[in-house]
Design brief:
It is built from 11 helices and 10 strands. It is an alpha+beta fold. The strands form 3 sheets. A 4-stranded mixed beta sheet has the order 1-4-5-8. A 4-stranded antiparallel beta sheet has the order 2-3-7-6, with helices on one face. Helix 4 runs antiparallel to helix 5 and helix 5 packs antiparallel against helix 6. The chain is globular.
Length: 385
């Protein structure tokens, strides 16, 4: 479909596709096999100004929005979800500073982020605080002109590779979620270290590590917003970033569909290509329809968020939920269309299926997305009475 992209948006999408075709596709299998962090591809994205896409011009960015970011994420995901996760997680880690950072923090950190000089990561998840973000146990205690951080963060994307971390920690446990605060912690700060690199089912090119804080001292000016705002910072960040996860779903589903459709045209059975069989046509028709529906939802929600809409939790959750469920179904069906070949590592769809599963889990499981949607619906129906 024609989504009436502006000339700039079409150029962004075309360049992202070109990078995917030339830089990502040739190495994706090797990156997956070796669990190799895609530094060279990140450098190419930096040279293309993609790290500054959504950052205002006054801080060295291009001044675009989440919609343009989603276009890039979608194209990268069509090639390799591990690569797109590395790129998208940078935005996830940046949003707390962009949304709630002081002018001094923005001037200090955003130019380097926009240029791609320094990668970013978002530190929210813990062993007992995943979907239950209010269950954070990492603490940040004030001590003179500093905060002292203690605790661990689990399964952090870009962990160990990123230079800048936005971290949620408790400044007042007695207040529950209202006692959480957000901080900026730089790699190399004494008392800040990393656990082992996790060995994952999918997105193996993406680095996932534990963050460890042992009497880690950071200056008080590294507090984002004010004490007690951490939960709001985290939730508003996720509201902004979930269309990016939806775009990942659209991208990996598109890649799997293209691989399956191409194979079905070439594979001969009973003297004719398998795409001529109605059973295969119906599967491909359903896949194509589901992808287009997911793309339309993700694009419209991303534009809605960029319009400065105040309440976007429901719509953001819908985009993430629907597109990532589609991604899982389409990648599984792509393997089915390709039969035994689809199951082999010689073809990319088995990797796409392994990669797609994480989309239903990270940045809030899809069960949690349904909870968010349901809770907003309750509020909305109550207002209409």
């Amino acid at each position: 479909m024609d989504y009436f992209l502006t000339e700039d948006q079409q150029m962004i999408k075309d360049l992202a596709r070109e990078i995917t075709e030339e830089k990502v596709l040739p190495v994706r299998a090797e990156l997956d096999e070796k669990e190799e962090f895609p530094w060279e591809i990140m450098k190419t994205l930096a040279q293309s100004d993609f790290f500054g896409l959504y950052i205002p011009e006054e801080y060295g960015g291009m001044g675009k929005g989440g919609f343009e970011l989603s276009l890039v994420i979608e194209e990268l995901s069509r090639g390799c979800l591990g690569v797109s996760t590395t790129y998208a997680a940078n935005a996830l880690g940046t949003y707390p500073v962009l949304l709630y950072g002081s002018e001094e923090q923005k001037k200090k950190y955003l130019p380097d982020i926009a240029s791609g000089k320094r990668l970013v990561a978002f530190g929210l998840t813990e062993a007992n605080a995943g979907s239950d973000a209010a269950g954070v146990r990492t603490t940040a205690k004030p001590d003179g002109s500093e905060y002292v951080l203690n605790g661990t963060k689990q399964w952090i994307t870009n962990g160990g590779e990123a230079e800048i971390y936005t971290v949620i920690a408790m400044t007042d446990k007695s207040k529950g979620a209202r006692g959480a605060s957000a901080f900026i912690v730089e790699k190399g700060t004494p008392g800040f270290s990393f656990g082992k690199k996790e060995n994952k089912l999918g997105i193996r090119a993406s680095a996932t590590r534990e963050l460890v804080f042992e009497n880690c001292r950071i200056p008080k000016e590294n507090l984002i917003s004010k004490e007690g705002m951490g939960f709001i910072v985290a939730m508003k960040t996720l509201d902004k970033s979930r269309t990016g996860v939806g775009a990942q779903g659209v991208g990996v589903a598109q890649g799997a569909f293209e691989a399956a459709a191409g194979y079905a045209k070439e594979r001969q059975q009973f003297g004719q290509p398998v795409i001529s069989f109605q059973a295969i046509q119906h599967m491909l028709a359903d896949m194509a329809t589901q992808i287009e529906a997911a793309r339309a939802l993700v694009y419209s929600v991303a534009k809605y968020i960029d319009s400065a809409a105040k309440e976007v939790s429901k719509e953001s959750a819908m985009a993430k939920l629907f597109a990532t469920d589609v991604a899982m179904k389409v990648t599984v069906d792509a393997i089915q269309v390709m039969g035994g070949s689809g199951y082999m590592r010689e073809y990319p769809v088995e990797k796409m299926m392994r990669d797609a599963k994480i989309l239903q889990i990270y940045e809030g499981t899809n069960q949690i997305q349904r909870n968010i949607i349901g809770q907003v619906l309750i509020k909305e129906t109550a207002k209409k009475r």
